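Re: [ENG-882] Designed sequences occasionally contain unexpected residues at chain ends

Forwarding the minimal case from QA. Structure tokens:
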């Protein structure tokens, strides 16, 4: 099993910045994809950014140019640098991992970290 723990959430003002972290522990995958997602009450979880074991990165249009996903190597945490956040970015943010490609279904999630932008 892989365990994921997010941190770094909190309150931030519009135009500020915030960095979320996701630490993984437990089993390791040779090939993996990790991603950041968010959810607000009453809405489906939204995919924001993914990065895989080959370093390929993809962003949703809603965060492209403002948020940056990074992971230096297999052991380091996953990060999401949030620049110029907007009130509509307020949500619970989750990281997820799959032991395959980013097209696979994510089944392992952290507990989430709340981000509030005002």
């Amino acid at each position: 099993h892989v365990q994921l723990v997010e941190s770094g959430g909190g309150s931030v003002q519009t135009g500020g910045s915030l960095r979320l972290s996701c630490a993984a522990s437990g089993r390791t995958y040779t090939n993996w994809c990790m991603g950041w997602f968010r959810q607000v009450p009453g809405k489906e979880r939204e995919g924001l950014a993914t990065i895989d074991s080959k370093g390929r990165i993809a962003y949703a249009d809603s965060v492209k140019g403002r948020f940056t996903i990074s992971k230096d190597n297999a052991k380091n945490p996953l990060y999401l640098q949030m620049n110029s956040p907007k009130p509509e970015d307020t949500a619970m943010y989750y990281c997820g991992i799959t032991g395959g490609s980013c097209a696979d279904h994510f089944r392992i999630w952290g507990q989430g970290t709340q981000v509030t932008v005002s």
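QA comment: On inspection the terminal residues look reasonable. Residues 26 and 64 are 31 Å apart (CA to CA). Proposing we downgrade this to a documentation issue.
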